[in-house]
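Colleagues,

For the teaching module next term, I've prepared a clean inverse folding example: a structure given as tokens, and then the sequence designed for it. I'd like students to try predicting residues themselves before seeing the answer, so please don't circulate the second half yet.
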């Protein structure tokens, strides 16, 4: 496995100068970057002590970051061995997409009637960040901005359980296929779909909103495996 460079993951800051409370978050971001880059491979086992040596930190923040990834469904803890990076099958991805369609499409369409101009403006700023990250090929910033966009959008429904569930489903799949999208030059096109969604919502067009969010979810599912939208 390629060495995971902790210093690179924190924009050049030396890991020892980071506040203790932030090490866990930086380690998690580096672990996610390693998954996207293929340095942490599905089906392989990794121990916190071994990874901590690569980061130059204690095993504790690494273990905590890995446990966060366990909660998100990226890895599973194996007693006395470490953490196994999970493989996501086509069936898993299809099931998650189906649930997202059931939850996000009607909710987003309903929000088109209710969402305020201030919230739309705020979401448009995040959408700009998504496109900018895609244009420079920064996958981790892309993932962070994309997650913020969808969580803040769905949270406008005022249902905390729904927001948490949608966020969890999105986190479980968000590392899939992005490397290939960048290589194929398709990540920017996917990023710009967020603006199309906001345009439909700003027009208070529930039918168009439903169509755009449906296409976005289906399109994303196809891109995970390098195929066209079905």
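(Answer key — instructors only)
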């Amino acid at each position: 496995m390629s060495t995971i460079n902790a210093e690179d993951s924190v924009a050049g800051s030396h890991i020892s100068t980071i506040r203790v409370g932030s090490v866990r978050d930086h380690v998690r971001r580096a672990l996610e970057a390693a998954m996207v880059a293929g340095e942490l491979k599905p089906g392989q086992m990794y121990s916190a002590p071994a990874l901590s040596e690569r980061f130059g930190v204690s095993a504790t923040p690494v273990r905590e970051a890995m446990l966060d990834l366990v909660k998100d469904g990226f890895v599973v803890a194996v007693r006395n061995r470490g953490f196994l990076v999970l493989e996501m099958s086509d069936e898993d991805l299809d099931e998650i997409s189906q649930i997202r369609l059931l939850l996000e499409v009607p909710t987003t369409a309903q929000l088109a009637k209710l969402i305020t101009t201030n919230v739309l403006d705020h979401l448009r700023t995040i959408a700009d960040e998504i496109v900018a990250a895609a244009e420079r090929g920064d996958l981790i910033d892309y993932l962070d901005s994309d997650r913020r966009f969808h969580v803040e959008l769905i949270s406008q429904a005022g249902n905390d359980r729904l927001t948490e569930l949608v966020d969890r489903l999105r986190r479980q799949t968000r590392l899939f296929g992005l490397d290939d999208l960048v290589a194929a030059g398709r990540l920017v096109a996917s990023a710009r779909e967020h603006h199309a969604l906001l345009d439909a919502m700003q027009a208070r067009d529930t039918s168009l909103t439903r169509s755009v969010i449906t296409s976005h979810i289906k399109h994303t599912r196809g891109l995970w495996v390098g195929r066209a939208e079905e």
